[in-house]
Model the fold of this input.
Amino acid sequence: MGYFLLRIPKNPELMTTLRVDDNLIQIALNHSSATPVLIMDMATLKRTAATFSGYAPAIATYYAVKANADPFVLRTLAGEGIGFEVASEAELSTLLSLGVSSDRIITSNPIKAPAFISAMRSIGVDRFVVDSIDEIDKLASYAPGCHVLLRLAVDNTGSTWPLDEKFAATAVETIELAMHAVQTGLQPAGLTFHVGSQCTNPFAWATALRDAKAVWDEVKNHEIKFDTLNVGGGFPAAHHDVHPDYEQSLDSIVESISAFPDASTIEVEPGRGLVGDAGVLVGRVVGKATRSGNRWLYLDVGVFNGLMEVVGGIEYQYTSLDHEGPENEWTVAGPSCDSMDIVAREVRLPDLAVGDRVAISPAGAYTSVYASSFNGLAQPRVLCV
Ligand SMILES: Cc1ncc(COP(=O)(O)O)c(C=O)c1O
Done:
């Protein structure tokens, strides 16, 4: 991918120095209609999809739909041979309405509503993820005899968005869960884990697989034989100073899975890594203010209608599209009346005017899907180009 310092023409007169994906900003520059809008670049999406799907024949890629559920994005990924991971009936029905066949759909959510379990079974998906005794007991009544993957707790160091508090079981618990699954008539099929989202340590999956190997081997002493490994998502987008190198992560996964010669099914389920860098969110300045000597810039997009992930430490790059000149430091905020609607501080931008556009990137993942209509604010339209 082309992330580097470059000079690009913004309009006939303006030039600027940016560290951004040149293609995406060019696309944003050409877009002048209603904001906020999330522009998804299908060429970037296809390139990233090809990196995952073509990497190793032994590894099947399932896109985590929660990251961006736009039907055109899903259709494009389906066309690239990618499978899908769903967490709700709504995600499932979108895929089915696009003609995605059930053998390309999995689910990995450790906590599932009974109606969702039934919906998955009705299309023939009979494998679920568990990380607690309670969920196993629930499955025993709603999906008797089903296959289960056990979600193992792994080190989430290096991830901006850790996922290890709400989900996953320790190694000892995982072995107990496998035995409990057998006792309740379920079929323990293997392990899954998540290294945390926006994981910038390419070797996190290798470390997790070392922990998984100990559990994989230990269950054999209890007459349980696993055959499936799902190594989750976590692949980063180009937030802040991160230059994603999926090949390094995938290389280390491929190397590590050689320790599992009896694993017949190996899966990755990237969300952010597949769609994040393909999206640029375009918003407009709706107001400005000076408070205690600090300059504030208010955009028509903020925490409640697209940039929710800033509350967990995800940082974006802000690029002026219509105006340039000497830069100031701005506190950038969203348009709502809530004081937690502040998206970034110390952002360097020129002295923008009301109505000027700002490109926010990379924004393909966890933006439009998180947006609410709080305050009656517009949610970003998704435009695939
Ligand atoms: C079960 C599961 N799989 C995959 C993903 C995708 O993670 P990421 O977007 O970090 O790749 C998530 C994200 O929450 C998840 O919960």
Observations:
- The chain has a mean pLDDT of 92.
- The chain is about 25% helix and 25% strand.
